[in-house]
Structure formats: C-alpha cells, structure tokens
Amino acid sequence: MSADWFRRRFLPGGPLPAPRPPRPRASPVPYRRPRFLRGSGSSPGTADASCRPNARPVRSPVRGRALPWNAGYAEIINAEKSEFNEDQAACGKLCIRRFEFGVEEDQEWLTLCPEEFLTGHYWALFDGHGGPAAAILAANTLHSCLRRQLEAVVEGMVAPQPPMHLSGHCIRPSDSQFVEEKGIRAEDLVVGALESAFQECDEVIGRELEASGQVGGCTALVAVTLQGKLYVANAGDSRAILVRRDEVRPLSSEFTPETERQRIQQLAFLYPELLAGEFTRLEFPRRLKGDDLGQKVLFRDHHMSGWSYKCVEQSDLKYPLIHGQGRQARLLGTLAVSRGLGDHQLKVLDTNIQLKPFLLSVPQVTVLDMDQLEPQEEDIVVMATDGLWDVLSNEQVARLVRSFLPGNREDPHRAKGAVATEDSNIASQNHLRARCSVSVHHGQQQVCLPHPQTQP
Amino acid sequence: MSADWFRRRFLPGGPLPAPRPPRPRASPVPYRRPRFLRGSGSSPGTADASCRPNARPVRSPVRGRALPWNAGYAEIINAEKSEFNEDQAACGKLCIRRFEFGVEEDQEWLTLCPEEFLTGHYWALFDGHGGPAAAILAANTLHSCLRRQLEAVVEGMVAPQPPMHLSGHCIRPSDSQFVEEKGIRAEDLVVGALESAFQECDEVIGRELEASGQVGGCTALVAVTLQGKLYVANAGDSRAILVRRDEVRPLSSEFTPETERQRIQQLAFLYPELLAGEFTRLEFPRRLKGDDLGQKVLFRDHHMSGWSYKCVEQSDLKYPLIHGQGRQARLLGTLAVSRGLGDHQLKVLDTNIQLKPFLLSVPQVTVLDMDQLEPQEEDIVVMATDGLWDVLSNEQVARLVRSFLPGNREDPHRAKGAVATEDSNIASQNHLRARCSVSVHHGQQQVCLPHPQTQP
Known about the structure:
Two copies of one chain form a homodimer. By secondary structure, the first copy, chain A, is of the alpha+beta class. Chain A is about 30% helix and about 20% strand. Chain A contains twelve helices and 18 strands. In chain A, helix 4 (about 135-160) runs antiparallel to helix 6. The radius of gyration of chain A is 24 Å and the shape is globular. Chain A starts with a helix and ends in an 8-residue tail after the last strand. Chains A and B meet through helix 1, helix 4, helix 5, helix 6 and helix 7 of A and helix 1, helix 4, helix 5, helix 6 and helix 7 of B. Chains A, B: This is Protein phosphatase 1M isoform X2. Chains A, B: One of its GO terms (molecular function) is [pyruvate dehydrogenase (acetyl-transferring)]-phosphatase activity. Chains A, B: It holds the Pfam family PP2C.
C-alpha cells in the first residue's frame, strides 16, 4: 500500500484509478456457524438458565468433539439484533512447511530430518458488524494468510537468529552484528507475519465483498502457539486474558475510537479532506449547540492528552469526528471500533465520507514466553468478544473460571465446561440486565495453556 | 496550526505564503549560564577528581544560594564539543493569578479571599544542539508561556471539577455529567497547559531565531509542582526518575527517532514529498548496498512492530529515514532526537529536505499525586540530560543518591551535595571512558520531594 494508493483511494480530486475490467458478480458468501459447532443444537446451558423464559440459549461443541488443546468454546445466540449471528470463530492446527525440496535436494538428508513441518495451534474470534460476510470470510481465510506469511519467513524463524538475508548467503560478514544490535529475534518474525496476515486477509475480504456485492466488517482476535510462545494478535474491541491462580494478566488492548483518538484526529489534521467539511476533528465533552457559540469550552486536539478551553466558533458546531463515551463512542457517528477487517465500502449515512482511511487492519501483538511463565495446570486463557466484557470484568471472569475448574480436575473437557458456565451466567445476567444486553452478541473461547500432563 | 499551514510550510508546490513585511534583524540571543550559577566558578567537584589532569570541572550554585525546595544543581562544562555550553536550566516559583479583578468586582469579597494566587514551583533542563540559542530562549521563555497557559484555565483548575464552560455559566444542566463521564479532572487542565506552553514556546523560538538569523534546537524536560501534584513534561531524550528507599520510578520516556519510529515512518508514508525522493522510509538492520539488490532482507514499515523480509529494489538503497542504533540513531541522517523546541530552519545537509515536520514540540506529561505517594524525607527526583544517562543507569544513579544522603541528613543543601557527587563521579568516569564521553555535555538537577519537615 503506497501513499499514492492512499490518496487515489480516499482523497477527492486525486487522479482516477485505471478502469478495471468488469468482473462477473460472485455468489454471496454463504452463511455458516463455526465448523466445530456442527451437530450441536441451540440449548440453554444450565437447568437454572432454562427455567428463565427469556434466557438466551448457549451453543458449544457436542461432547466428544475436541478442540485443539481441549479448548472450550461457547456462544450465546444473537439477541435478535440481526438475522444472522455476526460473530464467527475458527481454530485448528497450523502446519508451517519448513523446507522447499527442490530436485537438487539430498534425499538422504531429508530422511535424517524428520521435522519437515513446524507445527502450532490457532484460535480466532471475529465479531462482525454490518452483516456476517466479513466475519465468515475472515474465519475462512485468516489462518491461510498466516500460514503463507509464516512459510515465507520460516527459514529465519528456525535459525539461531533471523539472518539479514533470507537466502542464508552472507553478503557482509558484519550482517549478524547488525541484526543483533537491533535485537531482532525469531518471535519478531512471527509478530511481523501476524501483522502482514491481517493486512493480506483484509485485502482478500475487500475483493470478495466487492465481487459478491456484500458489505460489512469484523474485529479479529487471534491466539497462536508456536515454538514455545503464545502470540495474541488483536484488532478491535475483543479481549484476551490469562487467568492464573494468583494473577489475571491482560493479553490484549482494545482499539476503539476512544482509545485511538489521537491517531484518528492526527489523520484528520493531516488530511482534512477526509471529513468533507461535515465533521470537526476536535473533541468536546458533548456535542456543541448554537448557544455555546462564543463561550470558552473544554476541548482536546490531536496533540493533546490533557484538556484545555477554546472559544467556540461556528465550525466547532459540526458533528465530532469521535463522539460519545465508552461503549457509545462512535467514529464518524457510525462505527464503535477503530481496527478490524473489512468495511472497505462503509460510508457515513447519506454522504460520500469513507470510514476505511481511519481504520487499521493491523493488530497489536502480545508475546508470552510459555517456558518463562512456568504454566500450571489451572492456567486458562479466556478470549471473548465485547459481549462478555461488557457485562463481566476481568476479575469476575477469573473468579468464575477458578470456581469451576478445581471441581472438574479430572475432566479433560473442563475448559469447555468452564466456558459454558460463564456463558450461562451471562445469559441469565442478560435477562436481568436487559438494557445492557441489547447489543450483547458474542462468541467466546477458552484455551488451556500447555501443562505437560494436559498437552495433547 | 492547521493542515493548510502544514502543507504550505512543508510541501513543495503548495500555495506560496503571503509575503511578509521585511523585519529589522534583531540582535543575536546573548549567551549566558543559568542565573542561579552566578558567582560560581568552574571548579572540579571533588579533590579526587581535581587530581586527574583531564577531569572536567563541575559547576553548581554557590553555597548560600538556595534553589526552590533546596534543589541541587550541577553541570559538567561542555567537553569542548562546541564553543558554548549548549545546555541550559531554569527554576523558580510559579505564581498563577487566580482572579481577574474588574471594576465591578466586590472589594469586600476581595479582602475576604486572600488566596489571590495559586503558587507552584518550576524546574527545567534544556539540552541544546546546533548552537546555544534555542536552549537560552527556552530557558528565558517557557515558564512565562506556562504561566500564561495556566492563567487561561485557572478558574477551571480551582473548581471542584473543571466546568464545561470556563465562564461558569451553565448552558445546559447536564454539562457536569458530560465532564464527569469523560473523567476530566483539574490535573488534565495542567497537562493541557503544559502541552500548549511547549507549543507556544516553540513558536516564540521560531520567530526569535528567524529574526536574529540564528539556528538550533533543544530538548526540554520540565518538572512542576502544583496543588499537591508533581507534573513531569518531557520532549526529547532527557530523563527524570524518582529515587525512593526501595524503589526507582521512571517519570518520563525518551523520544528519539528509534522510540518514535512508527510515528515518523507513518508521516513519511502519508506525505512522501517530505523525503524528496532522497530517503527511504523503510527500516533495515543496516544500510543496503548494491550487492543486496534482489536479495530478501529484513525490514520494517510504519505499521509493523515485528520484522519481515522483502526483496530489495533499487529504491531501498536510498539513505534510510531513520538510521543507526541506540545513541547513534539519526532522523534523516541529522538529528538524534524526535521531540523538542526549535530547529525550524534545520535541513538535511546540502538539500531542501526539512526536519521540522517530523519533530514534535509537544511533551509527554507524567502526573504524580504526592499525597498518595506518602513522600519520605529521603525521596529525590533526579532530572538529567542524556549526558548522565549515557554513562549511568537509573539504578546506578539511585545507588549514588542513596549512599550520599543518609550521611548528610542534617544538611539542608544535601540534594546539592548529592548532585555534585554524581557529577564528580561522571567527570572522572568520563576521563576513564573517553570514547563514551566525547558527546557528554549535560546539565543535571535534583529536586527533593516535599517532606513536611523540609518543604520551605
């Protein structure tokens, strides 16, 4: 993606893109639930929840269908917010081909080297909006993008240190010294591969949605285990935490118009054309009205963490680039997240103002060294979309997980049980807290960290 | 500052600025050392250091001249790197006028309200480059800018909660609810005032340097105490730490081309004209040469925290936007810091490529609630330019401070003694570590946190 592309794509008056040959319209992306839910009905999670007439049913994989590492998964059926459940999930084994075997390859050496593949695991949650298509495409595609990106750098990942040149040819003897000075390690290549995979997947989604005439976007939260490390990549407002006996550790940050305010305002400062004169990039505590004109009111601009006062002018009365607070915060009055996949055609209602230039598809990646962590049998990673975190805090989720697991120590599917317990809890809570639950629609997934006795 | 201004100022081919009336050239900014050093000679700090023939002398205020809060200050004379010591310092009491007394003011009320001023303290270090002028202007100006910015919002600072409207008129009854939802507190106004003051000071420096035909820039590290809080504002690579009996707490982060790589690369992505085709925005472990062409080498772009490989093209052989590692990292091959004041006219040697668009004058501000901290008598804040931190770690500085203070508990000027001890240590270390000390030129200052018994 070049600056030229950015301007052509998003700025008015830029040179027109070369005309594309007309492409036959592809069929719409077919709706589906995650593969591992096949055979599972929509059933209330517990007897208690089923007693409540309005409790929302919890779905999880049928007994006997194991997810990698005996992970648990459960989802609450969409609260009739849209026709389809817009959330999706995916998991599976990652097989990264380590070597390209050419004709000149020494066949004897091949048999001496059984580790032809580097293997890992992959879990992903996608929280869709504006239709289920983007989340379905992401669930179908992102793991393939990641595998491709990892295979492109795998030689560097398995070397003692990523070499300056991937070919292994040493152009300059001092190359390894430069790599060392920059502190580049194998895990940086996995982080880079995750970043590139999200971008590649975003491009695929853009092409597919355009071809099928569909719209929509989704957040993406991905956990990958590889070479003794856990990578958590997040673009959006989902969240992953690690629950241990004495600790709750956040593994991701949320990306919303609020948390990324300065980046978004900065872009609007550099390219005010993106707002088409309809929005103000300044933040005020509330939307200003005519009677605020001439008053000195609290405001923040792109370079400010603190607040100051400014005298209100006519242009400050425009609708704010970022408006609202907490869960209500919206980008251009339209979108509640600032990172994710898709949304290539999304515009502000009844305008030509595009949201995509303000969105990032690139995730933030957290790396956890599982050897240094000395994982215990009861350690659990909880990944969930905002539906869970809107109603339960990290500590509340940790308490639920901790209270369920000890009594089910012998059950290899205990993570599944734990996740169903949480969801039942939410399903009944939602019933009690109807106001909060209106937009609660979430998938949720749990992953056991590898204890020697439990790791398959 | 508007986007329009940004483009006119920095992009080629933008509309020409309106011609300015010729301004009589002002006289150059006169050189000086900080006021509180008057009367102090250049003397080696300790007998031990003075025995070494090449030990660099340490300067500190003469005995009897107390800095606010009995702070200590010491500087090592510039190692003949330039004709003048490019570092500057300033400190003093901040008096913020709380009320504008108009003719309609009730005089009786005035006498009932003795707290006409809000008072605080101010300490600042400026590490100059490209000449001493910018640092001198900053030391002369920044505290006035800050006072002005604080006075503009002081009514909001002394209210129980900053009001939506500074006038105090409540336009809408729900205003305070919006302020509360955004979590806006008095300290956010001080942070905002510090951010605005740095920007205002940067503009003053730009005008003054242009008028006097001088050049240069400086970093700025400022500590302010106000209403029971300590604010540390930093733009550049200086550093402040809090040393306590059992803890060393960083109070600032460094801003260099390395730590701000993604911000700088992002701007070059959005406005490639700023590089005039002479630089590449991509980062490689080392500068690429002709024999790297066609190879797959490690690289990072603006959206990447991790690393990946790319096939080297001709354009990748250009000089990198950010080059080098650690202390050697340079922006456009020219500057070692990415935030600070001044440098308005700085260009890459023999080109028209400007550095200013990549520099931020806005500081990052850390807030320390001194009541929550429960300060102890031996707590010390150490502020120093990179000259100190290049040769001593936070822990080493803490050890020096802790070893000096207990034996001097009765001395009200003990912070001054502690700082001289450190500087002597550096002066002699520099002698021993000549390679490291070449560019060591620093001011350094210590501030006692307010213990009830020591606070004046």
